[in-house]
Specification:
single chain, alpha+beta, 11 strands, 16% strand, elongated
């Protein structure tokens, strides 16, 4: 057999590999979390301009010669970062613009009832590269957080009508995410099953070595086992069904301000059921039950309702504390070394926020544990993620050794040409497998670790002193609320002790 014929056979195997570089997302070789390390360091250090510059650079106008993420599988992730970062610096209009683009991208993904040609190509790319070849569609956590930030951005722009319209939709947004979750996993299973049918030998081996219990039981995967245990522990702080208490609280608040206490009762009952030991939600629930003329449950008889109105002349302080959990690249042996994403969690810079207003002190309580929400979802997705990683790794291995076998079997090939061909495959294939052994660590990182909340009557002097207490000390800020706002949401965004932003979002209606 002549070398050109052998070359053509090899090209038939290598062309899909080359194509997968084009199809793969921008995180295919260097994982997303590593790419963001410098940006996140600047963000935590308080260099907001540098952080925005990095995000804007990623989202610049795409050209064939640049590395813009626009129109790639990474675009949604960077739009979300742009939305929350612009919110952090108080550019609510740009924040809203970015979130609207992100929302449209999510809708485009969701409206693909069947696999499009682009999706099929991405699936093939994922098998031959890694999961970064698939577009980032956002975690359920992302979709609810996007809706929350959109609502607050409208209020920041002074569009109170749009703010109320958005938070009235939050309850439906929460239900939609829950309904879409099962559909998402049905599609994920279909794609995985299709890939297994195309690669039966790799699929058979994956079924035997790709189980989480099997991997965790391997002494060489002790780090995997430890990380998984920690993740599962924090996942217990989640609320089930991807419920985000911040969204439910805002929905309930809208109902309170509308005087619809029956709807508010439903929302605060859900919050009380999700966190039955949270005194804040007990107090809200008892308050709206009284307003709705409903009986107080026996276990809440001793809870006092708020002694000031929540529907008018009230200030709500939402405290976004710390940086959210993310994913970092780790390795597992199956028995081939494969990269996988593991949850990494960060300490909160502050323990609590206190507010002094009208001569009284008020302390914040937990509203939503964002780490728990993400960890709970990742825990549910983990079996499928691990199966995909193991299957993809075995497919790449099979393609590599198959290419070597084709050339090695050519007895009539010139020995020198054969040696050159084998050398090229071994060197190139090894380099490719190493480069593509990259975990999908994509996530929305410019989010808080947790939300806390406190509330109090609008002080007559419209002055609020806020104090953030942490291990490294206390940070204080005094705010003067605008004369024309009758109520307000104060949003305190503190990813670190070095970068704290205070935003007064005025409510002028009542």
């Amino acid at each position: 057999m002549t070398f050109p014929i052998v070359a053509r056979r090899l090209l038939r195997r290598l062309v899909p590999l080359a194509a997968s570089f084009v199809l793969a997302g921008c995180s295919s070789v260097v994982n997303s979390h590593t790419q963001k390390q410098e940006m996140m360091a600047e963000y935590l250090a308080g260099d907001n301009d540098a952080t925005l510059d990095e995000i804007e650079y990623k989202l610049r106008e795409p050209r064939w010669y640049n590395s813009s993420v626009v129109d790639t599988g990474d675009e949604l992730m960077w739009r979300l970062e742009a939305g929350s970062m612009n919110f952090h610096v108080g550019d609510f209009e740009e924040s809203l613009n970015q979130f609207k683009i992100a929302e449209e991208l999510i809708n485009q993904y969701d409206q693909r009832a069947d696999l499009s040609a682009r999706d099929v190509a991405a699936e093939a790319g994922a098998a031959l590269t890694n999961l970064n070849a698939l577009p980032y569609r956002g975690y359920c956590r992302d979709r609810i957080a996007l809706a929350v930030y959109k609502a607050l951005a409208y209020l920041g722009m002074g569009d109170e009508e749009a703010f109320h319209a958005q938070i009235r939709r939050l309850r439906n947004e929460q239900k939609k995410v829950q309904d879409d979750y099962s559909k998402f996993f049905e599609k994920e299973k279909e794609r995985l099953d299709a890939e297994k049918r195309r690669n039966p030998e790799a699929a058979k081996k994956t079924d035997s070595v790709g189980q989480i219990s099997t991997i965790a039981g391997n002494p060489k995967n002790a780090a995997f086992a430890t990380s998984t245990r920690k993740m599962k522990k924090i996942a217990n702080k989640g609320y089930g069904n991807f419920l985000n208490p911040t969204a439910i609280f805002l929905s309930g608040l809208a109902s309170i301000r509308d005087g619809n206490y029956d709807n508010a009762r439903i929302d605060f009952r859900r919050l009380n059921e999700a966190m039955p030991n949270n005194p804040l939600f007990q107090q809200y629930y008892v308050t709206v039950l009284n307003k709705a003329g409903r009986d107080i449950p026996a276990d809440l008889k001793g809870v006092q309702p708020f002694d000031f109105p929540l529907d008018e002349n009230c200030v709500f302080v939402v405290f976004a504390n710390g940086r959210t959990a993310a994913f970092e690249e780790s390795s597992i042996e199956v028995p081939i070394m494969a990269a996988w994403p593991s949850c990494v969690f960060y300490d909160a810079p502050f323990q609590q926020l206190s507010a002094e207003a009208g001569g009284k002190q008020y302390s914040s309580l937990i509203l939503a544990d964002m780490d728990g929400i993400l960890a709970q979802e990742f825990d549910e997705r983990l079996p499928g993620i691990v199966t995909r990683i193991v299957l993809g790794t075995l497919i790449k291995e099979a393609a590599y050794y198959s290419g070597i076998a084709i050339v090695a079997a050519q007895d009539d090939m010139d020995p020198t040409v054969k040696l050159l061909a084998l050398t090229a495959i071994i060197i190139g294939g090894s380099a490719y497998r190493s480069a593509m052994n990259t975990a999908d660590t994509r996530s929305w990182e410019i989010l808080p670790k947790e939300f806390q909340l406190t509330q109090f009557p609008m002080p007559s002097n419209r002055q609020v002193k806020l104090k953030l207490t942490g291990q490294s000390g206390t940070l204080s800020q005094t705010l003067k609320l605008p004369a024309d706002c009758k109520s307000a949401i104060i949003f305190v965004d503190a990813p670190s002790a070095q970068n704290v932003a205070f935003h007064v979002l005025p409510i002028k209606s009542k």
